[in-house]
Amino acid sequence: MKEIKISTEFIKLDAFLKWCAIASSGGEARIYIYDELVKVNGEVCIQRGKKIRVTDVVSFDGEDYKII
Description:
Keywords: RNA-binding
Helix content: 10-25%
Strand order of the largest sheet: 1-7-6-3-4
Shape: globular
Pfam families: S4_2
Structural class: alpha+beta
CATH class: Alpha Beta
Oligomer: single chain
Strand content: 25-35%
GO molecular function, one term: RNA binding
Largest sheet: 5 strands, mixed
């Protein structure tokens, strides 16, 4: 599990995917989210603007990313 540090209260899911280099652009992040390829805390999430907070776990392509 990779740990990703954020310095704000939350980060939106699409921005998070760009922040940790899963997606190279907002459009690419949007595709991954709408194609139901991203999970937040074990559940598929199709909300681009979902607020990701400390202790949340984002999963994509067999990798888990814990927000610290």
